[in-house]
Design brief:
The structure is a single chain. Among the domains are: about 295-420; about 430-590, no CATH class; about 605-645 and about 680-775; about 915-1095, no CATH class. About 65% of the residues lie in helices and about 0% in strands. It is built from 55 helices and 2 strands. The radius of gyration is 37 Å and the shape is globular. It comes from Cacopsylla melanoneura. One of its GO terms (cellular component) is cytosol.
Amino acid sequence: MAVNEKISAVLKDLPLRILTPSYNERKIILHGIISILDEPEITEPIIKGVSKLLPTTLHSYKDHKSQGLVKSVIFNLLKHHPLWTNQHLSQSIFNFSQTYKTTNATKSVAKCLYAPLSWSFILMKSLDLSNDMNKASFETLVRAQSILMSHVVASTNPKLLASMFKSLRTTFEDSLAPPVLIQQFGDALLKLEPNYHTIILGSYFIRYLKSAKLDSDIPKYKNFLLDAFIKMGISAKVQPPVYIIRHAQHLLSTVTPDEFKTQFLPAFQRSMLRSPEILLPVVRFIVEQFAIDLSPYSLDLGKLLGANLYSKDDSLRSHAVLSLRSLSTRCLSSGDLAKLVTHLVAVFNGSEGKLTVPGYKMSVLEGIGSLSENKVSQDSEPLVKSTLEQLLKILETEVHEKTIVVALQTLTAWLRKLHPPQGGAKDPSPPTPLPPTLITMFKKCLAAKSISPVVRGAYFACLVTALDAESKGQDGSEPSRGQGGVLGQVKEFQTDLIKSVERAVAQPTQAAVVHEAIPAAILLLRVSKTTTDDTKLNAILESTILNMKKQVLLSEKILMQATPEVTYLSAVLATELLLHKSSSLRGPLTSLYRTLLLTLTSPQWDLRRQARGLVRSLYGSEDRLTYALELLREMSGLLNTIQIQGFESKSPASAATNGVGPDSSNKENKDTTNSTGLEPGTPECISSSQLYATLLFLVSHPAFQFDDKDRLALAALPLGAHDKLVAHVRPESVSLLLTNVLHRLNIRDEKQFVLAHEKELIETYVHGTWEVNAPGNAHNNVLRYLTEFFEKTHLAISNEDYFTFLTPPGQIYDKTLLESLGASGGDSHLTNMKRESKAYSYRDQLEEIQLRKELEAKKAKQGKVKETQYTPKQKEAIKAQLDKESDIRSRVTKLNASLVRMLNLLRCAFDGHPAYIALNYNALLPLLLSQLNSPLAAPAILDIYEHLIRAGIFDERDLSFAHTVVRATLRLASPRCDLPQAWSQEPLPRSIERCLAYMSSLPAPLSGPGFCFCFQLIRYMLAENTVAPDAVTDTSVATCLSVIADHSRLRHDDILSIRHPITLPRKNMFSLLLELIGKLFDIPVHYQGRICLVSY
């Protein structure tokens, strides 16, 4: 009997007790389960019940210790009752996975689903596959694993993915695992439905077989998996998520040329003809996964993609260009690529219909340019030269300016392939000149009178690229000082280059003219390395290019209007001047370093990558320390003058909805623009993540000497602690900013560094940032002053007083006095109007009054209205009214000034240390909301109330929800001011319903300050709701109480943590719960209310 009592005690209320938030209680409960497993009274229903309970812990047990406790229970279940455990726990895991079968993959879900996936690996190793019941359990496990694994890979977390594959490998290689496990796993895989989950599981199974040298087993499963991929990834009517395609790489890398020709190519052709808008956005990702040479099929694929280069849909054209780029990276044959280039040129010339829209022509040219990314390493010269000849023919006939510029950019891309690297040859080949036809064409076009500055600058940019390609082809050595090679040909354009710079000096405010001169200046600088006695060249260099006091080419206003190509060329010009002309420069070099920094922090990834290459070339010189210190000094000035945008985030759900998924980041679409839509050269708004990455890059070059690192660290640390940068990073990342800077400089002993530079650090951080690091002294006073002000100051003025305050001095707000005096203009006629008149009807009288008003308004516009004459008695009455309103205006003005000062003080304290202010939201938010009945305070409080959610208390994914909560709360509070019209587009009950649904679906409770915002919505809805009474239902009340109960369990040891219970609005919560219990008579509500009270 004692044993039964022990089992009953352990199992009593187990479904509720196992979800406790306390780790110590979890430990006691789970150890209690383990202690009864070896009892003979344990039956199969008990094991079944425990197996069903374990998946319920997945959303609550987020820490590793708690998850370890659950695993220990599973190990003991398998030890004492293996058959029952395998049968029922496998089914429980499968049932749990089925709830996510059609759910969009997110990173948070992936972390949650990794735990049951690890359980399934434990079960697989313990199964006796000779038992038919265990075979059924095994197949159930494999079906569950396919769903769980596909969600885990969607996280794109390298550590999680590595851990997952390690678990899979160790499961197959474990000595305790059944010897036929791999074969049984493969057989179970073949029985799965052909869907995304099966593709992911099969791909990682193929990866294991390759790593285990079991290549002979791959053909057994390959055809099934390839058919599944073609069905779901190519022939599907819904666009597949990108992460599915990328993680199918292990499968697609096994595709042979024959398989591609017989299976994939026909599937591509059918899908591209049927629905290109579905397949085209992911074609480039599919092509990138193949390991074979796609040259034999490049023309067939290119025709499919080329047909979309002149599509009416802009997105399809851009996807076609990117797909051609990916295709070219998988082509190794120059002959096949030459056929594809010829085909695209023919399309441009009208072989498939005349292209009359310039956008279509530009897309075709961009497609030709994307093919320059090919991997042809041998015999590439004929391909490049034939492509250049065809592009020159296009330039001869094209007249549209933008199309010419794109054609020149395409030509520039192929010029980079004209001088491939020598591969470390001891004797580099002599410089190879550009084709004579190209030089002739350039001269002809530059001599044309109708050529615009934009086109001329594009020609010069082509020559810059040709020089760069020649230099890289010679292993980075300096160009020859003779007359051969590209540099010798550039000298033929010296007159045009000098004229271009002179035009920029004459018209420094014309952006297009200055942009044209930037590549011209680069070419002149390079020509000057081989020419020292050219008087005209030296004169233009000395007067314009080397004179920093009169620098017009790198003007910040001009760079703000620059395209990415011009922005990069401006950074090249700055690098050229610093590297080769630093001794000749006259004046401050601020513009050079600022140009480099603006390029380094550009929102465009390609531009940042190119700029880093330029900075590395600076760091390769002997003056690297000087350059680094100057860049850091200029970065400090940049931080003081720009607006900084916080860390970007994308909603995984929204990403998955549009077929991209959480793993969609790539070079092409990773960060081409910031959220403000600014172009790369625009300095007003820069991402804080890009600034921080730039800071780490500037101090992380391996060439810095040991003695240089301390100086760099002392220069970089103030930037890492800059208030603008710190204010825009995630709160959990702030403590890592300075540490990461030291680690990039290979300074591992932070303590020794601090001791060595104690004086400098104290001066910079203790004296300079005392207020930020010790906020309690000032911020407590701010909150106390604010509370006293609102409690002692009567802000609830009348609407008449408020509108009097808004009326300009000298004017009367209360027009009733003027009406009583008969001096209200046309309105005075109303006093003489009668309902009954023998001469005129009432309607005729109204029309006459309206006509008089229109005539007087017309006279007023012409300045012919005579000022109304008042009697002395009337003037005295008007003066008395003006004095009365002046007293009201003066009183309200003083009140408003005090209010503005207090709210500005709160805003400054919040901007200085938002985390500390957030700890007091439980008292601050009700205080602010209580003042919404004042028309004077309400507009300002609306603004600051919504501003307070930016204290880092909400995750990035919850910010939209937080805004909805704030706006619904303010609508319920009925402030005495006009709300933004956009807030009322959604009915208030619907908005409240969405907020409650989101709160109840949160996987974990919000922080204490975050819940303070939610509680204000709940309080106004349940206790003070006169605006939307329909929102209060039994269901909504139950949801509110459930949310309160969940958050009342917040616990943390650190009193300054946002998860400490002291941050909750405890007093208001008690009051609301007691009021509800006393007011509502519903039994479930009473029960929930008591649970909430006990939870405290």
